[in-house]
Design goal:
Structural class: mainly alpha
Shape: elongated
Organism: Streptomyces tagetis
Protein name: Abi-like protein
Radius of gyration: 20 Å
Number of helices: 13
Order of helices and strands: HHHHHHHHHHHHH
């Protein structure tokens, strides 16, 4: 099945990676190659909105937790789980490896993973009472729903972000691999702007004006038919 794809493409991207695109294209090598390039284009178009979300989310959560605990290194007194404490230690160690003898708070905040920040909205390990009720709900001034629904949306976006950042398919494999959230790039894009709106309606409006993902997705059919070359 992979034999119809150019040998250079199989060497560059690997047969196992291209096999999923061939399956999605039902063995049509030309369509599989076009789908690969379109996936790259669509992922690139999602990078900007995902960047806005990740940076804004961590800054908002850091801000309310700093205020709640009365210190910038709020994790010292916060009820973090052992895994949460390990992630803080990992972020501190990374700062120090990068040449900062005493890791600054801003450096640690930057190095903490998106998964860490999303976990602060979860209900596991007593985080509902330890974080959400006293502090983290304030990071979402325009949200009035249940914590669990917001956390589900954030987990959805974490999964999409990881697909994009790790160069994985964001469309043809997502429904099968992430059935809990019924992930597809269009619903992921919509959820992203919902959450941005909860954090900052002004930012959501500004980002949407620059967002080219809707146009990229609308031209998916043309890209797969070969009537419009993908661009990134």
């Amino acid at each position: 099945m992979a034999g119809d794809l150019p040998e250079w493409m199989l060497r560059a991207f690997s047969k196992p990676r291209m096999a999923s695109y061939l399956r999605a294209a039902r063995g049509d090598a030309q369509k599989a190659a076009s789908l690969y390039w379109w996936n790259m284009e669509a992922s690139a178009a999602l990078y900007g909105p995902l960047n806005c979300l990740e940076v804004t989310l961590r800054n908002a959560l850091h801000g309310v937790l700093e205020q709640h605990h009365g210190r910038p290194d709020w994790w010292v007194g916060a009820p973090l789980s052992p895994n949460g404490l390990r992630l803080v230690d990992d972020a501190r160690a990374k700062c120090e490896r990068n040449g900062t003898a005493s890791a600054p708070v801003d450096g640690i905040v930057t190095e903490l993973t998106l998964g860490f920040w999303v976990s602060l909205v979860s209900g596991a390990r007593g985080y509902d009472r330890g974080f959400w009720v006293p502090a983290t709900h304030k990071a979402f001034p325009n949200y009035s729903g249940r914590r669990k629904e917001l956390h589900d949306s954030l987990m959805f976006l974490l999964w999409l972000r990881n697909r994009v950042m790790h160069h994985e398919p964001i469309d043809h494999q997502c429904r099968r691999r992430c059935p809990r959230w019924h992930l597809d790039p269009v619903s992921g894009h919509a959820t992203l702007y919902d959450v941005l709106g909860y954090l900052s309606p002004e930012l959501a409006k500004e980002a949407r004006a620059m967002d080219r993902f809707p146009a990229v997705f609308a031209s998916r059919g043309d890209a797969l038919r070969g009537t419009r070359p993908p661009q990134f």
